[in-house]
Amino acid sequence: MTAASDGHPPLIEAERVTRILPGAVPVTLVRDIDLSFSDGELVAITGPSGSGKSSLLYILGLLDTPTEGRLLFRGEDTATIDAEARARLRLEFLGFVFQFHFLLAEFTILENAMIPMRRLGHLSSREIRDRGIELLTSLGLGDHIDKRPDQLSGGERQRGALARSLANNPPVILADEPTGNLDTHNSEIVFDILATLARDQNKTVIMVTHDIGLAERTDRRIHLVDARVVRDEKIATADGLPV
Fold first, then answer.
1. Which CATH number fits domain 39-50+80-231: 3.40.50.2300, 3.40.50.720, 3.90.550.10, 3.40.50.300?
2. What is the pTM of this model?
3. Is the dihedral of CA 137, 139, 143, 148 positive or negative?
4. Buried-exposed string 91-109: b where 16+ CB fall within 10 A, e elsewhere
5. pLDDT digits (tens, 9 = 90+) for 43-82
6. Alpha carbons 222 and 17: distance in angstroms, whole number
C-alpha cells in the first residue's frame, strides 16, 4: 500500500483481504485483495456473477469482516474498534446505495432521507428537515418530498435513496448495482449524479456494476474473477489521459 499523494494515508486500504464462509465446503468470497482508494475517485468494480464484487463492497462498507487481512480507514485498522464504533463509522463515513432502493414504505421520501441524520444526532430537527429538503431538491425531487416510495417512479425512488446516502455528507459512497433496476434514461441520470459527486464534490464513489458502458466512463475499473482482482486500471480518454 502507498500513501495518498498529499502524504496522508489513503482513504480506504484493503491489505491482503480474504473472506471465507466456513462450512463442510468452505466458500471463498474474496481472496488476497490489495487495494487503496483516494478522495474523489469514481471507481467501477466489474466481473462475472459470483466473482466477489458485492462481497468486496460489503467488506469495504463494514457490513462484513475479513477472515484474513486488514481493512484500514485513514490508516486506522477497523479490526481494532468495537461494534458500536464500527456502526458509528459507517454512519459518518459511508453512504450506501443498492440496486433496490430499500426505502421504508411507510415513510415519505423526505422522512427516509432524514433517518441517517436523526441517527447521527448532530443536527436539530429543523436543520435535519431543511437538509433533507435541500438534498431532495438538488436531485430533482423537490416536488415529491411528501410522497411515499410507492408513489414515485423507479428512477425517483433511486434518487431518493441517493439523497438518503448523502444525508450525513459522507466522504465515501458505496453503490451496489445502482442502475441495475433502471431503464437507460434513469440509469444515465443516476450515473451522472454519482460522477458529479466524485468530480465536483471530491467524494469517493465505488460502484459495483454489470454495465460495462458505465464502467468505462469512470476514472478507474477494478475487475474481479473467481474472488480475486485480475485488473486494476485507470480509464483513459481518447487522447490517452485519465478521465
1. 3.40.50.300
2. 0.89
3. negative
4. bebbbbbbbebebeeeebb
5. 999 999 999 999 999 999 999 999 999 999 999 999 988 9
6. 15
